[in-house]
Specification:
By secondary structure, the chain is an all-alpha fold. Helices cover 82% and strands 0% of the residues. It has 2 helices and no strands. The two termini are 14 Å apart.
Length: 55
């Protein structure tokens, strides 16, 4: 994994992206939020499993 140097501009850009994602999240129904949370957890679990195999 490559490390990235975070400049003040990059931090501001990421903060803006986070605010946009938060606004989208707030507009979702509980069912949609549940679906996305399940999908994110699946990706996290699969990424963890592939790292264990690689290590």
């Amino acid at each position: 994994m490559m490390k990235e140097i975070l400049t003040e501009e990059k931090v501001k850009q990421r903060w803006q992206q986070m605010e946009e994602m938060n606004a989208i999240w707030d507009c979702l129904t509980e069912r949609q939020k549940g679906y996305l949370e399940g999908s994110m957890n699946t990706v996290i679990a699969l990424a963890g499993a592939s790292q264990k195999k690689a290590g």
